[in-house]
Write a structure and sequence with these properties.
Distance between the termini: 38 Å
Strand order of the largest sheet: 1-2
Order of helices and strands: HEEHHHEEEE
Oligomer: single chain
Structural class: alpha+beta
Length: about 130
């Protein structure tokens, strides 16, 4: 299968959902490495540059992609959105964006902003309010 990323949907969210090719037959995963994930982000125009990723970034991107796909499918079929898919997408949307960081040698990689933990009322959390999360 062709490893080139394609952008034919006219919307980054739809193109992102399409990164699992041949979904209904011989599935072909486009996000097999952190490098392939980073290439998609750059080629899609969502970002200008990426920091080298890790395997966990790929797993997280796949989870968000599948949640986006589930929401798109529900909308297309006129069904209610699934709670799990909504939770995954909304949690990803709540994460802080990346910001440039200067280093001693000049411009550094883009890094996520640190964030203050804000546990949801009534939900368990492994951090306390006001603590900076990793």
């Amino acid at each position: 299968m062709n490893l080139d990323h394609v952008f034919v949907c006219g919307n980054p969210a739809l193109d992102f959902a399409a990164t699992l090719r041949a979904r209904r037959s011989a599935r072909f995963e486009m996000f097999v490495t952190p490098e392939r994930l980073g290439a998609w982000y750059e080629e899609s125009g969502v970002v200008d540059a990426v920091t080298p990723g890790e395997d966990g970034d790929v797993q997280q991107a796949r989870a968000v992609r599948e949640a986006v796909y589930a929401l798109i499918t529900a909308r297309r079929l006129g069904e209610e959105f699934g709670a799990d898919a909504l939770a995954v997408v909304n949690e990803a949307a709540r994460r802080p964006s990346a910001v440039p960081q200067l280093t001693r040698v000049g411009a550094g990689p883009w890094r996520p902003r640190s964030r203050r933990c804000r546990p949801s009322p009534g939900s368990p959390s492994n951090c306390s309010p006001g603590r900076t999360c990793p």
